[in-house]
Amino acid sequence: MPRLNLTVRWQRKLARFHLLPSAERFAETIFGATDEYGPAYPDYDRPPFDKRPIKFRHERMNGWVRLFTGKLRLEYATGLIYSGLRPIYRSTDDIYTKFLPATKYYATFRRKRRHIDEAIVLTTLWADGYYHFLYEFVAKVELIERAGLSPTIPAIVPKGLTERSFFKQAVALGLFGDRPIIVQEEDEVIEARRFYVVRPDRHSQRQLGFPAKRFGACPDPQARLRIYVSRNTQAGTIRQILNEQELVARLEPLGFQVVDPGTTPLSAQIDLFSRASIVVGPHGAGLANILFRTGAPMALVEMINDTKLTHHHFFQIARLCDYFYRATLNRAEATWEQTANAHADIESVMEAVNEAIAWEHSTYDGVAKQAG
């Protein structure tokens, strides 16, 4: 048998000529709909971002559950399902299909196998990163429960994710309830007769509100905690703010406390951000915690590298959660956008912070008067 690796591009070509099965033809959609599209995301166009617009493609806004049946195998690295000898094109959750690594056809049949009857596939690309875990992986749990899948059906989780501290803490906080979990080893192929593949809602109210509900966050609309999210306390962390000490010196007299989510237990992050009225910080996974404030007022000031081309994530989330939002541009080092350290434009940050504080006074004074 040849040592054949099939890229997504080649899978698409072969599926077009029916040489490979495709998920659209092979699987049954048992919940949700795969053909509904929402409008293109709006861009954040306040200066200076009006000079560097981001063009967004139309995104599928709905979630779904697909059922695959037959003699099936699940590959670890891609989450791709094989039917017999052939991979099924787009049999993953179809969120980041174009970024998937090539499927290792030869290795799929040489690795050790585990046989089960049925399982829910929760594999998603980059779920071992906190942002993708919270906004995509956790959202899948909401969808499978809403779809009414029996709590006795086990969920498959890749080993790499289970080794992350935030995953272990999320499980301890009741993420899966009583649902059994199967940990797929890196050198293991899982065989089954039925696989349920889940795609979560994308930026819907249900998706954004579920983590807070599942983990017991209780947003206090009267709380006025001000947080600066740091990425600098752990050596080796990417996208650090090189002049952070100077920025913090300006923020602390305004009542801000420094929080590094990377060194803070998940339960403490939930508590802190559920009480935060203003959050300031550089673009990164730590800002994902803003969803624990869902249902209460919040202002977010996001510091984005001038080299970063995809900066819409938290603007979209803030917009849907009805948060006040401002963004500033850092001056990044000349390196890859995903890893570049940067200097904050402190005066621009402070201007945005002052706007957030003015919004806070207006919003919370109004809430207090209504409560009185």
The poorly predicted ranges are: 368-372
Strand content: 15-25%
Q: In percent, how helical is the residue content? A: 25-40%
Mean pLDDT: 89
Termini separation comes to 76 Å
SSE order in H/E notation?
EHHEEEEEHEEHEHHEEHEHEHEEHEEH
Task: List the topology elements.
Elements: E1 5-6, H1 8-16, H2 23-26, E2 28-32, E3 64-74, E4 81-83, E5 86-87, E6 103-104, H3 105-108, E7 112-115, E8 118-121, H4 130-146, E9 155-158, H5 159-162, H6 165-172, E10 181-184, E11 188-199, H7 205-214, E12 225-229, H8 244-251, E13 256-259, H9 266-274, E14 276-282, E15 299-305, H10 313-320, E16 324-332, E17 342-343, H11 346-371
Parallel strand pairs: 7-11, 8-9, 8-11, 9-10, 12-13, 12-14, 14-15, 15-16
Antiparallel strand pairs: 1-6, 2-3, 3-4, 3-11, 4-5, 16-17
Helix pairs in contact: 4-7
Written overview of the protein:
- The protein is of the alpha/beta class.
- It contains eleven helices and 17 strands.
- Helix 4 (130-146) crosses helix 7.
- The longest helix has 26 residues, at 346-371.
- The radius of gyration is 22 Å and the shape is elongated.
- The termini are far apart.
